[in-house]
Amino acid sequence: MTVLVAAALLLAGCRSSSGGSTSATAPQPVVNVNAAAPPSTSGSASGNTSPAKPPRPLARSVPVRLEIPAIGVDTPVVKLGLAADGSVQVPPIEAHAPAGWYQGSPTPGQVGPSVILAHVTVGQYGDGVFLHLSRLRPGDRIVARLADGASAAFTVDRVQTVAKAHFPTSAVYGDVDRPELRLITCGGPRNSDGSGYLDNVVVYASLAAPAAGTTH
């Protein structure tokens, strides 16, 4: 993914109470080289435990709904492409605005980081679907319902609130060798002029193994 696309994604969910964007031009992100990689699925470092078998990746199928029980999210998911200026589209500014899946990323359950973004506020309409995203904790469950009828269940590995100037681009968008999910919105304090937010909230999650007796 190009730096331009990655930068544009940082603006997802960053609408002010007046409905304006945080910026007309996507800023160039600064890669935080010290950002920790998502937790490994390998076994104990002592060598006494065999590594757990990773969940089998799912076939490509676009997400149509996202459920996050811990924070009361149950929302449709729309497709997001690129705007005319090369930036990533964001979900519409409207009442009950849905989450959006960036089509340039893998679908949930495929190998790689699938990217879903949503607003924290939606202008005159008030709270956005990802208002409470920062409240998620490791172990919380996220379920993406797919167009083919399958479901991709993820477990939250970590939640990060980071200044936009130090956004960990590589950790968020870089290649990984297993199915993972990234949820992105804005957070932290508002800009001094009230036009947006200074931080991004990023949730890192990995595909969970299906429960016994179930299939994807």
TrEMBL record:
The region called Disordered is annotated at 33-59
Top-level taxonomic group: Bacteria
Composition skew (Low complexity), residue ranges = 33-51
Stretches of the chain forming a coiled coil according to its record? none
Signal sequence annotation: 1-19
Q: Which keywords has UniProt assigned to this entry?
A: Hydrolase, Signal
The answer to keyword Oxidoreductase applying to this record is no
Pfam families, per database record: Sortase (PF04203)
What InterPro entries does this protein map onto?
Answer: Sortase, Sortase_dom-sf, Sortase_F
Question: This protein is called what?
Answer: Class F sortase
Native organism is Streptacidiphilus alkalitolerans
